[in-house]
Amino acid sequence: MQHGAEATLIMCRVTSPILRQCWVRFSRGVGPLMRAIAPSCLLLLCGFALSGCVIVPYPHTTQSSPEIRGRILDETTHNPVGGAEISVHERPSTRVVSDTTGQFLLPVHHNFHWFITASSCADDLPHGLPYCDTVDIRCRGYATVQIDALRHLAHAYKYYGDPMVLRDVLLVVTNR
After folding, report:
1. C-alpha torsion 91→69→77→173, nearest 10
2. Could you tell me which residues come within 8 angstroms of residue 11 by beta carbon, excluding any fewer than 6 positions away?
3. Torsion angle in degrees (nearest 10) through CA of 132, 137, 138, 139
4. Which of 46, 63, 107, 139 has the greatest number of beta carbons closer than 10 A?
5. Are 80 and 101 in contact, with CB atoms under 8 Å apart?
């Protein structure tokens, strides 16, 4: 018997015969990696249970960034700026490029979670990326702009999950 598994069995014997019985049944037919990891997982689950938290298997998604639509214009001429790169702040992989009319559409992004914790410590597991509605806009020949979408709305934002439509974003020309 491995040293780690032996220590776990001794701990189970001391704490509870039920835990020992569960461990013996679980360890039958389980590979060496799972046998090494299982004691830690068991202790983690016991810790959650004793703290009043309950982990419930519940595959689901949460929104990490909303759908954001808008138009990019030159500040002096008010002409559309095509080719501007728009992304959700700190998530460059969400990058889109404005079309020749200056229009852009950042699609909604979600986090996937396998579990949810119930009671006073409610949380989604794994955590995923935090919610973000800040937009970065970059374009050659213009100053980079960072916009808080909630403060730059064209009209009232009614419901969480609805697309955010921004007022026209004006880019300032820099020395080319």
Report:
1. -10
2. 39
3. 160
4. 139
5. yes
- Strand 68-74 versus strand 169-171 pairing type: parallel
pLDDT tens digit sequence for 94-123: 899 999 999 999 988 877 877 776 655 556
Does the reported pTM lie above 0.90? Answer: no
CA distance 104 to 65: 15
**Lookup: tokens for 56:** 């419930």
- Look up residue 160 and give its two tokens: 């969480």
Going through 39-106 in order, the beta strands assigned E by DSSP cover: 54-65, 68-74, 85-88, 91-97, 103-106
Domains located in the chain, CATH noted: 3-50 (no CATH), 64-108+131-171 (2.60.40.1120)
Q: How confident is the model at residue 91 (pLDDT cuts 50, 70, 90)?
A: confident
The rounded distance, in Å, linking the Cα atoms of 152 and 149 is 5
Nearest alpha carbon to residue 137 among 93, 88, 74? 88
Secondary structure (3-state) at 58: strand
Residue 173 and residue 176: Cα distance in Å, rounded?
8
State residue 19 phi and psi, 5-degree precision: -60, -40
CA distance 55 to 122: 9
pLDDT of residue 38 exceeding 90:
no
